[in-house]
């Protein structure tokens, strides 16, 4: 078997075979090539020889004094060139309003370089800009035209020489400057007019309605079309977009080709989906779409991912979806066919931490998408906040320098420049498979939304905006001056487009959506469950003995050339004993059996988290590390048919969880799991949980099967290592949106993971996974529970054989506390108290619980016991549901009592002694051993009845 499974770890571009060098070294950094040394002058001796040779060829003096003088001038000229390459963007003409103070830096002047008054002097530059010798004044003009025009390029922070030279050549070569054919210029003008007139049409027809218009940034429309055109010609077959509000409706209509009539229908209050589909729907500027566009005979599929108002939250979702699509296109090595494009606002790009989290993922194994094109709509304002109060950096795009992404700053009043920037961005991304940023400086003609009055806070800016001509007017004047269009061309373009909008407006009155596309493509064969109860029955999740034994061999066989850690050796010895005796299967082994069986059946399995390979608690050992050379072996990756992936993620919750949600959004045939190091840390991704996982299906008709694994349980580890905030997930439960479980049995965990993939529908699943139960002697399962007719159990009885008719007191609970209760009950030799575990909290198993309660004919008390404080945990969620089950079972008037910790602002104590005292007390109260606790429980029961 050897170490071939190393190959199942997707490599970074250009990285072949196992990692070389120390284990802590990232093979991607440093990039090849030398970083620019901005302070070092060229070697005078070498320069003198070049100047002397060039002087002789040009018929110039070659005596020592003349060569020395020419050499000094040449070095000054080369430093001038270098500084323009590094800092020329600081003097670029970027602000359409002319309000930005962008004086030419002193070191970009001839005076600073000692060349003032020498504009007519010829200097040797050795082929730069195509010049061997050039006059100083001409060189300065070329430098300013190249680096200080309507496009400013930041690229000299990039370490890789090849990348710098590529951008330099593209920018400095005459044939690569901003040039378009007359037909191309007319197409750009037409696209700008479509963008402008569409916004004006919406404003006229739907007065006062929010649309977050693109007004002032319309140059983005032809630029995004250039991404499709040039992307298609360079191998792109699918583009996945993510963006916020501003300009979204314009992009949907004029780039994504969503029919105008559909958007007009939605503006008029109509639904985006058929009436029988249901769902809450969402506002127009949150919705997505998918379509095909064709340029030059090449068809490109495009999708715009729906998103909430939370700025930049959609970014990791787009990247995760892109990664999944690349896997399905067999494009994970070349990264050529599927391209992510993210459209940002300037304030959000600088202000939202998830932007950096996504940049941080860009070159990481398992998360790389081969580069993303970032397009910043730089309004030069964020809602009402001016840039100087919105960030500490000169540009909103400066965060991108952290991954050495090149940045193209461009004036939004020049649509040709913006389109050129997108063309260059596509070429760079397709060549180097790295992120690149376009920072389009524009303005927001109206307020944050169309009902906002921006002059309250920016009166001078909006005075200038009110008198500033529109993009199409400026561009039309330019094209007329160039002879590209005639006098009446632009008005005719406007009228033709408005007539088309009028036709679409009329058709919108009779428009009715007739389908929703959420179960198309790779989702074919899946559907929405008929109802939350019966649709979850009869899923056969057990496996056969032959597969069971085969997986056992895979999980316990060490290749001959692999030297494993001695402790791992003992772990594997214990596993071999499990498979030999058929008893004592622990949590990690059950999990590996679930993963392996799904892979063998052709499903993919993808697990990511901050320590997922080994497991936070050293329980999983999905990756075996050779102790001699740190080579990696993944047993489950050797299985045929499907694909098993496990990744130790970046130290991110928001970004990585969003990435995995996006992956699961695209690929329902892969069990996608995100694991928190401790369940408490999930709150770092709360936006993703609230806005996507819990509500994405009902808002946007997008199913998702993501699994969240959240270690949860009170073991005296303090406030941040105890609670995964179960109550928050339960509060989000409604409309059969998610599944929430707190599982206590390894076999039950095995079955629920398999059930997640074997059912004909997908729902996000949140599992409170254990910590101490990973090795608890009672939390074990026998082999027979994985085979035969075994299946997932929504409720589990305790191990004591107490007849239902004998039960006087029933303790219901969920999670680890069940074992504390059973241990204490057995220790006290109590024979009339039964303990039942609710393994699935939502959808709540009311029917099987009622069946069980009906058999308890002598039942007097029902207690809900939890480890969490009274204001946390499941109590407020389950109490009415338990009462309903009691009523259905014939126990009218009986209500559950509470046993658990008192209310607390902190989820857990940080003192071991206090933790133990609290735990002992709540267990005693639940079992009726505490007189005070029993009295309190009865008092609460009477109060409930009254």
TrEMBL record:
Broadest EC class assigned to this enzyme: oxidoreductase
Cellular component, GO annotation: cytosol; oxoglutarate dehydrogenase complex
Region: Disordered, residue numbers: 1-41
Record-listed E.C. numbers: 1.2.4.2
Name this protein carries in UniProt: 2-oxoglutarate dehydrogenase E1 component
InterPro entries: 2oxoglutarate_DH_E1, DH_E1, KGD_C_sf, ODO-1/KGD_C, THDP-binding, Transketolase-like_Pyr-bd
Organism: Aurantiacibacter aquimixticola
Keyword terms, alphabetized: Oxidoreductase, Thiamine pyrophosphate
Annotated signal sequence range: none
Entry's Gene Ontology BP terms: tricarboxylic acid cycle
Domain Transketolase-like pyrimidine-binding: residue ranges: 585-776
NCBIfam families named among the record's database cross-references: 2oxo_dh_E1 (TIGR00239), PRK09404.1 (NF006914), PRK12270.1 (NF008907)
